[in-house]
């Protein structure tokens, strides 16, 4: 019964309203005194709860002495609750969107957000790639996934999904440029994502950076930062759509792209 109360609360009823509604559904009808006994809620709260449920149209009032209260059919009641909930959701969404897009909150978009945990970062990587409309620049995220697969098997499906989304974006006309840190990985990426433009970073293997970056449409950036704990890598990422921060990262990535080497092979075509 606890789960039913929770479900009704999630639809917008209070705990007392849920208990009264369930009591009436079980017993059919009753006076305020009956409902107090059936539901277990305080006598002083019964009339207020009944009034609210009647206003929502999910119970009916019989004007007898004493007055009796009757539950409408559960199907009809839930439909009315859902309709009220949807209306409130739409109203809240409209108001929140107005607040979010208002000039008073533009400064908040300059904040750099921190994302912790491998799963959260993986989802965010896929999310930003899916949002791309014109250009994606990636600096060596794939070795991050490949190395982590050995320790965290769950990463493999995220890697596969990321590859799938990148290929889908290329098919939609989005330019995908990738800076890779090893020839072995570059060959692998060339086969998996044949439409991507690839460059080989000029640093030596022992100078490899421990993270990567994804720049989307020159308007948002996700950078992963890795630290080591024993045999495992712990990931934290930062995300921002702030103009100054993104512009700075874009400048760095474009500079790295220019100094990186064009691979000396013809990528395999599917």
UniProtKB/TrEMBL annotation:
<dbReference type="Pfam" id="PF11495">
    <property type="entry name" value="Regulator_TrmB"/>
</dbReference>
<dbReference type="InterPro" id="IPR002831">
    <property type="entry name" value="Tscrpt_reg_TrmB_N"/>
</dbReference>
<comment type="similarity">
    <text>Belongs to the transcriptional regulator TrmB family.</text>
</comment>
<feature type="domain" description="Transcription regulator TrmB N-terminal">
    <location>
        <begin position="8"/>
        <end position="75"/>
    </location>
</feature>
<dbReference type="InterPro" id="IPR036388">
    <property type="entry name" value="WH-like_DNA-bd_sf"/>
</dbReference>
<dbReference type="InterPro" id="IPR021586">
    <property type="entry name" value="Tscrpt_reg_TrmB_C"/>
</dbReference>
<dbReference type="InterPro" id="IPR051797">
    <property type="entry name" value="TrmB-like"/>
</dbReference>
<protein>
    <submittedName>
        <fullName>Putative transcriptional regulator</fullName>
    </submittedName>
</protein>
<dbReference type="Pfam" id="PF01978">
    <property type="entry name" value="TrmB"/>
</dbReference>
<feature type="domain" description="Transcription regulator TrmB C-terminal">
    <location>
        <begin position="112"/>
        <end position="262"/>
    </location>
</feature>
<dbReference type="InterPro" id="IPR036390">
    <property type="entry name" value="WH_DNA-bd_sf"/>
</dbReference>
């Amino acid at each position: 019964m606890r789960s039913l109360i929770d479900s009704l609360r999630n639809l917008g009823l209070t705990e007392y309203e849920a208990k009264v509604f369930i009591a009436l559904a079980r017993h059919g009808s009753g006076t305020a005194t009956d409902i107090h006994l059936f539901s277990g809620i305080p006598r002083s709260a019964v009339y207020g709860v009944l009034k609210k449920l009647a206003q929502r149209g999910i119970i009916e009032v019989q004007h007898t002495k004493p007055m009796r209260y009757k539950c409408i059919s559960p199907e009809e009641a839930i439909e009315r609750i859902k309709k009220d909930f949807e209306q409130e959701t739409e109203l809240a969404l409209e108001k929140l969107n107005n607040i979010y897009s208002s000039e008073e909150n533009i400064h908040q978009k300059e904040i750099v957000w921190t994302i912790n945990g491998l799963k959260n970062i993986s989802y965010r990587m896929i999310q930003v790639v899916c949002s791309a409309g014109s250009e994606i620049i990636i600096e060596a995220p794939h070795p991050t996934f490949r190395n982590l697969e050995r320790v965290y098997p769950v990463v493999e499906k995220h890697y596969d999904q990321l590859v799938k989304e990148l290929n889908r974006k290329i098919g939609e006309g989005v330019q995908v440029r990738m800076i890779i840190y090893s020839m072995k990985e570059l060959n692998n990426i060339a086969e998996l994502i044949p439409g991507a433009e690839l460059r080989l970073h000029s640093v030596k293997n022992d100078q490899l950076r421990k993270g990567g970056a994804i720049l989307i449409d020159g308007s948002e950036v996700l950078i992963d930062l890795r630290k080591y704990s024993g045999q495992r890598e712990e990931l934290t990422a930062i995300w921002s759509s702030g103009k100054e921060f993104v512009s700075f990262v874009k400048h760095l990535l474009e500079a790295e792209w220019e100094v990186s080497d064009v691979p000396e092979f013809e990528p395999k075509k599917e």
